[in-house]
Write a structure and sequence with these properties.
By secondary structure, this protein is mainly alpha-helical. It has one domain. 59% of the residues lie in helices and 0% in strands. It is elongated and about 45 Å long.
């Protein structure tokens, strides 16, 4: 049974004012965490959660690639696809979790 979607109550104003920083979150996840006004923006924090999960996946892929002498580099392909999907979701103002990994983002509880 799928878990229920969490209700974030993100306003259109938050989406509009946070699009750029949400995109930046996928490239350098800690930048929005350093800015007080962005830490209060639910849209930005949602995408920051997603980018942290993506970073953890990159780290796991790096470990697997190192252990398997580079064979695990194939695992980077889905990570890159997820990165592109996340950036596109942020640019389009969408609040959708990344496939397979996005559901774990709410464990960081950044959206308050």
């Amino acid at each position: 049974m799928p878990e229920p979607e969490r209700n974030l109550n993100i306003t259109p104003e938050e989406i509009q004012s946070g699009k750029t920083m949400a995109i930046v979150a996928y490239l350098i996840f800690f930048i929005p965490l350093l800015m007080d006004d962005m830490r209060k923006n639910k849209f930005v924090m949602y995408h920051t959660e997603q980018s942290i999960i993506l970073l953890i996946c990159y780290i796991i892929c790096s470990i697997v690639a190192t252990i398997t002498c580079g064979v695990g580099l194939v695992l980077y392909i889905p990570c890159i696809v997820f990165l592109i999907m996340g950036i596109m979701n942020a640019a389009n103002g969408e609040v959708k979790p990344l496939p397979l990994i996005g559901q774990y983002g709410e464990k960081f509880n950044l959206v308050k």
